[in-house]
Amino acid sequence: MSASKPATQSAATPYRPETRLIHSGVLRSQFSETSEALFLTQGFVYATAEECEARFKGDDPGFIYSRFSNPNISMFESRMCALEGAEAARATATGMAAVTTAILAPLRAGDHVVASKAMFGSCRYVVEDLLPRYGIESTLVDGLDLDQWRKAMRPNTRSCFLESPTNPTLDVLDIGAIAEVAHDAGARLIVDNVFATPIWQSPLQLGADVVVYSATKHIDGQGRCLGGVILSSDDFIQEHIHNFMRQTGPSISPFNAWTLVKGLETLAIRVRQQTENAAAIADALAAHPKISRLIYPGRADHPQAELVKKQMRAGSTLIGFEVEGGKPAAFRFLNALKLARISNNLGDARSLVTHPATTTHQRLPIEARAELGISEGFIRFSAGLEHADDLIADIDAALEKA
Ligand SMILES: *Cc1c(COP(=O)(O)O)cnc(C)c1O
Predict the structure, then answer these.
(1) Is residue 103 located within the same domain as residue 251?
(2) Percentage of residues in the chain with pLDDT exceeding 90?
(3) CB of residue 99 inside a 6 A radius of ligand 1
(4) Cα 174 to middle of ligand 1, angstroms
(5) Domain-located, residue 8
(6) Which of 79, 97, 291, 302 could form a disulfide with 250 if both were Cys (CB 3.0 to 4.6 A apart)?
(7) Tell me, what CATH number does 119's domain have?
(8) Structural domain that includes position 92
(9) What is the C-alpha R_g of the chain?
(10) 261 & 294 share domain
(11) Are 231 and 121 in a shared domain?
C-alpha cells in the first residue's frame, strides 16, 4: 500500500469542510475496504534489516511503533489537519494530554505563560499549579481585557493560552487581537477550541499559532472514547511536540483514533443541528421568569455579540443560564429533567447538563468562582440531537419544579 507514509500533513484541498471530513486522510489497505480499517497493532515488522535501519533513520517514511505512529492515528491527524487548515497535528490520549503537551513541551524553567482566567478546570490546574513546580511562572488575566494581556507580557513570556467561548460562562475572547499582543511580545498563542468546535471557529486563520482540542467532546460526540489533538505549523510540531510525545508517550490508542475518524464523518451535521437546538432553547429561555441570566453566543444580547459575528461562523452548542434561587433551585431543576442528563461532559448527541459550581469548578474558592460569573444557580446546558421542542418542553417542566 502506498499508504505507509505517516501522513500528518494536509495537502491543499479545493473541497469544503463537509467533504474533507469524509475523504481526507484515508489510508486504504490492500483489501480496498470502504470504511477505514482498524490497525490494532503495537508495532510493525520490516522485510529486511536494511529497511528497518532506513525507517529508524527517517529515510523510509513507514510506521515504527504505535506510541508515535500508526495508520489509524495518522488518518485522524490528517483529517483534523484538513479540517483545521493546519500543516501538522499530533493526536493524544485525552484533551488534557493535548493541552498539557502543547503548553509544557516547548517551555523550560525560567519561561513565563499568560493565560485567561476563565478556562476548563484542569487547564487552570496545569497553568496555575503544575507549571510553577517546574520553574515556569504564570499570570492569569481577565481574558476580555486586552490591557491586562498587554501588561502581563514579560521578556520571558513564551506562550499565551486561552479558550473561547470560555467554559462555562461562554465569554468570547478576541483571538486576533490577543494573538497580536502575544506576537508583539515574541510569544505564541495557543487556543483551546473545544467550545467553538472546528466547524464554527478557525483560530489558526484568526492569528493563533497552535490549536488544541479535547476530541472527547464534539469530535467523538457520542460518548464513547477520550482523545485530543494538537494542530499547528509543521515547524512547531517538529521542534516542540514530536519528540516530546515520542519519548514520553501521551499517545492515543489506535482504536480511539479510529472511533474519532468515524466521529469526524458526522461532525458537521451534528454540530449544525446541536447549534440549531441550542439557539432554539436559548430563545425559549430568554424571557423565562425563573431564569435570571442567559448567555448564548448566537444571540444579539450576548455581551460580545459583535465579536461573535467577526470570528465565529455560528453560535454554540452550549448555553449558560442562571436559575433563580441559587443551588437549591438549580438542583431541583437538574433533578426534574427527564431528557437532559446530569453530567460533566458536553458536545454529546444526548443533551447533558452541568452544575459547574459543584463539579467542574468546585476546586475553586467561592470568590474565584464569583469572579468568573459561576454563581450557585448557574447551569451549563449542552444541547444534543433530540428534537428541540422535546428539549424545551423538558426544560420548561423542570423549571416549574425549580
Ligand atoms: C473537556 C475539555 C478539556 C479536557 O479534555 P479531556 O478529553 O476530558 O481530557 C479541555 N478543555 C476544554 C475546554 C474541555 O471542554
Answers:
(1) yes
(2) 92
(3) yes
(4) 21
(5) no
(6) 97
(7) 3.40.640.10
(8) 17-265
(9) 22
(10) no
(11) yes
